[in-house]
Here is the input.
Amino acid sequence: MSAFKTLDDLGDVTGKVALVRVDLNLPMQDGAVTDETRIRAAAPTILELAEKGAKVLLLAHFGRPKGERWSTQSLSMVVGAVEKVLGKEVMFVPEIAGDIVAQAVGILRAGDIAILENTRFWKGEEKNDPELVKAIAANGDFYVNDAFSAAHRAHATTEGLAHVLPAYAGRSMQAELEALDKALGKPEKPVAAIVGGAKVSSKLDVLKHLVTQVDHLIIGGGMANTFLAAKGVDVGKSLCEHDLAGTATEILETAEKSGCTVHLPYEVVVSKEFAANPPSLRTCNVHEVAADEMILDVGPSAVEALADVLKTCRTLVWNGPLGAFETVPFDAATVALAKTAAALTVEGSLISVAGGGDTVAALNHAGVAGDFSYISTAGGAFLEWMEGKELPGVAALSA
Ligand code: ADP
Ligand code: MG
Here is the structure.
């Protein structure tokens, strides 16, 4: 990871204007914010800048308005929720550049906070248009990026601004980059990765990258079926991408060459119908799946063997549940291995980093999310990082 500046590197910013990119793409229902997690993630950076006496202008996107103004996607809707989390009044400015923003800056006192309008109302945002970048930058003295979740996009407010203003990583961005660096950048070895979820096709690049990086690759979920089928196992009615058999074989070959041990389930939980506690539920050896059965989870003995693997490791990266965890009892393997990983983390023998929408939900369901070393809520950016890609928003901070 190349070096980037943090808020520790700011000099005296009293009265200076901070343009701060945050993630305010909040889940909403009937015009009300239903989950404040993303606001809480940005709060330390916003409050620190305000305490240091900066005038804080927040930049964020909301939804996919595709370069047009939609009143239903105005960031004015999140002002109340942001005020509540910050415990401070927040001004709303219905523009991101130009005279209206300049006037707002004139009104704001040192330490005041404003939210600018949804950046994606302007076509230049997603195009990273240099004219828009210049116009936004004209009202600011420095730029802070605290939105790791948008860092895989090279947009005006996620990348462009970093090239025209002094640029700093916010606290949330900094924490994410430091955690990710510990997990895959310069990890303590041995390193294990767990990759699960529905489909191989959605995580091909992740798997290809990980086999060259980690000592143990644990594959679970629906995607394990594709690997099993490629090895000649009859997976019955299981979710399986048979057309990816060749790709799966290549990934296994690369793993072998790279000294990465791949762990596929040798015992599985199956049933004839996909329902909670189905009557046909049974646990069997992976070679005994009947033609009318579906593999829906990893079996308990196989999970114990995986727990033993984690006990020999110092670092774990996890993306994707091991089974169809939304339906009982197919959450059992994910919950059991999550508890092991959490206990090892609490003991201090494992650094554990996890990410992905369903993965975070599964770890919350297991009640252990708080015990992991780091949980990324970044989604797409987390996956691209797992693919070994350089994220433009991060690269621009280090330039
Ligand atoms: P994430 O959002 O963490 O990246 P994914 O979206 O890739 O995870 O995968 C999660 C989905 O995979 C869940 O909805 C889960 O039910 C499904 N899944 C896991 N194992 C199986 C399986 N054996 N058969 C069918 N679906 C599965
Ligand atoms: Mg998902």
Summary: The pocket of magnesium ion (ligand 2) is lined by residues 357-358 (CB under 6 Å).
